[in-house]
Amino acid sequence: MAAATKIGRLEGLDLARFIAFVGMVIVNFSIVMGAEGTEGMLSNIIHALEGRAAATFVVLAGIGLGLAGMKGELNLTIFTTFKRAAFLLVLGLLNMLIFDADILHYYAFYFLFGALLLPVGTRALGWLIAGLAGAAVLMVLTLDYEAGWNWTDLTYPEFWTPVGFIRNLFFNGWHPVVPWLGFMLFGVMLSRSKLSSTKTQDALMFGGLLVFLLVNAISAYLQPLIAMVEPELVDLVTTNPIPPMPFYLMAGMSVASMVVGICLRAAPLLKDLGVLTVVNPAGRQTLTLYLAHILLGMGVMDELGLLGGQTTQVAFLASGIFCTLCVIYAFIWSRYFKRGPIEALMRKVAG
């Protein structure tokens, strides 16, 4: 029974990574295909996924980092994480040359700070998350959030300048360290709980759902009240990812909790049904597949003239086709290799 629980736990996290990856593909494909802003159920799904899928990914990265810190010698884990952060920074900056919404270079700093904070106690990590949320509000109130942006084409021309890079990284980029580091630290906190316990899994599922509903209800209640007093301050109480304010942080963490809890809970059954055998290899190659959805997925769409002016139905169809191909590729690749190509390269270069 213990062995089965352990397998369920590990494979449940791989399943969660794959689900988060699918969510990111849907959001990114919808953006580049110009399928945002339309009406209908599919558009509502896209809106619900925006910022949440990526946040779930970062929480899962935090869980992985926390588990690594507990399994091995802490100083070695920190040193290895530093090297991998450097690898991700280089990879992310190269990716920025073709995809302005790259998240990898942000990941480099999440891992850097996350590794440094591994020795910190769980309660202190909670206070740090609250501090990041408060700092994000203070920065939005005192600094120019639109600085560096060209909102007409969603580019950041000042990114490659020292001041622009730091501003984008910590304040007003797509996934700024303040407060997005909070998702990583929340993942580290979760790694210290008994994730293999069904009680913990149920708490993540139902607790996450309760917090998500509560946060959205409070946000919806406060927005019209604040709008009557000072419309420019409404962004402070929304659950939108831009700018990422405290309610967004709480909503993102609650969604990640639900996804992790559901995947861990369902893993034993899905394993018996053979689902995990097919799907999970893709969940273990998300770095490779993330780059593939930009270089190959968007590249093919560009050749087919599908970038811009498309419907949500076309965006979902493209996402479904691509993710299906990813599952097939990863399953075949896993028959011959232990890791994905980019994961193997990172392992060789950074340990």
Automatic annotation (TrEMBL):
The record's Pfam families line, in alphabetical order, gives: DUF418 (PF04235), HGSNAT_cat (PF07786)
Keywords per UniProt = Membrane, Transmembrane, Transmembrane helix
Does NADP count among this protein's keywords?
no
Entry annotated with the keyword Calcium: no
Q: Domain of life here?
A: Bacteria
Task: Domain (Heparan-alpha-glucosaminide N-acetyltransferase catalytic): give its ranges.
Answer: 9-197
Domain DUF418: start-end pairs:
202-350
What name does UniProt use for this protein?
A: Uncharacterized membrane protein YeiB
To which species is this protein native? Pseudovibrio ascidiaceicola
Entry's InterPro entries? Bact_Transport_Assoc (IPR052529), DUF418 (IPR007349), HGSNAT_cat (IPR012429)
